[in-house]
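2024-03-11 09:14:02 INFO receiving multi-entity request
2024-03-11 09:14:02 INFO entity count = two
2024-03-11 09:14:03 INFO echoing inputs for audit
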Amino acid sequence: MKLDDHEKAMLAGEEGPARRYAMEQIVRVGDFFGAERCVDVSQVHLMADPESLGEAGVAFLEGLAELPRDERRVRVPTVTDPRGVDFEAYKRLKQTDAMAGLERRAIAAFESFGVMMTDTCINYQTILPPVMGEHLAFGDTGSSIYANSVLGARTNFEGGPSALAAALAGRTAAYGLHLDEHRRGTSLFHVTARPEGLTEWGALGAIVGKAMSSYWDVPVVTGIEGAPTSDEIKQFGAALASFGSTPLFHMVGITPEAPDLKAVFDGDPPKPATMGAGDVADLIRSYTPADDTLHVVAFAGPQLSLVEMQMLAGLLEGRTLNKDVALLATTSPEIKSACDRMGLTAAIEGAGGVVLSGVCFYQMYAREIGEANGWKRLMSNSAKLVNILGGYGYEPVLGSMEQCVESAVQGRIVGVGS
Amino acid sequence: MSEGRVYKGVAGIGAAVEGEALVAHDNFSARYDLDRIKGVFSRPSHKLCGENYVGKVLILNIAKGGVATAWMLREMTDRDMAPAALILNAANPIMAQGAAFANLPLIDRFDVDITSVIKTGEHVAVDPANAIVKVL
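2024-03-11 09:21:47 INFO inference complete, emitting structure
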């Protein structure tokens, strides 16, 4: 990589070990992908839940936190992805004091860097939505695909160690999605039936994601007439990124880089794969359980927007959940505060649900809390969440928000698989 | 001179290492696919489900899943519960970032499907600096 004088100085350690670490990380990754230079970033979104960090990651952060103040402060606005422990609720969820302790240590380190603890994966809806063409270092697959696709900003998936490096150096390696050539369409999908509701949008994203062959695939979707809502395209993108591990899609006539097919393909577009209502139903049906046993309902992955929280509160108002089923809804601290103010938290918790702030279900020691609470059969309206939790020992079931709530009230899974 | 088979990738990260291959054409994510405490694959639909990966040269198709692997590889290395190396047909940025942070050997982008030419149990040498995997 070709580095400027400032980058060379940071790499040589002239601005301390934190910025040397940052440039070493940037150059190692940049060299691996053939980057020729760095690109300045204007925002960083940092994923660093304690389960992923472990003792090794937290000790690394604490090492940086011991440096003099001017050597350890981030150089661009940096916000955080969901954390692993909600200190108000962790004992009810049977998380341990060891988990909470690791979390507190990580937070203390991040605060000493000047990181803003927003603890949300929907920062693009709730904190500072990126702008078309803005270069970013976003560290959650859902926030990255939304920023790239829906908003036209430019980021790779920047995992915690690289997002932190970008924050400390104010830049990242210019490869992948920062470059025009990796933003061109590579495959084409034609949708014959518009999805209805958040779960179907997520299922459609899952189908496209499953067809991806690598990070470098860029799917182009046609056939959607009229804009989806922010939450619908959030579910679509989050599922696509989770199943496909790809950071960008174009939706012709909807997303900003795809006014028409010519704008996203060089030459003739590939032959489209057609997806209809039957494909969406099949994807949802693939999560049909063997029986109607239900332990926990989770609304998470991504965290719920204020609008989704209002939908959930509306479904739960005046109802009483079965005492043997837990219902958890995760959202950001900002949205939780709004929900408290607007009476939405009271409606959800009045029915017996739990509103969690600043966490997301799969980032909060999902395996351990499942074992501690006896949760195995889990139901969610998020295609992303059911995809992840199979590896955590759960038997996940995908249903609409209405089906999830009705099942939690009745104490058994109802309405799916028919 | 050894007549071992040699496969050349595009790029590598980390130090040279030798080990026993554990191979499948399935994809890889530390968060989605592993029980990192026990050191085994835990995703029921993964071909290696139940297999112990600790100290093995893990040879798989592509990097999938989310961003957590970028931290997790170092956490696994720190506890001596990591694979010896990762050999993939296609890494993604997360896998490269995690390997760089953990100093875990990684090579990708071969001119063959690397999962079809090396068999589980074969002893291999991994040379990231030259992006070469050699069957010993």
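2024-03-11 09:21:48 INFO post-check: The longest strand of chain A covers residues 296-304.
2024-03-11 09:21:48 INFO post-check: Chain A has three domains: 5-176, 184-284, 289-410.
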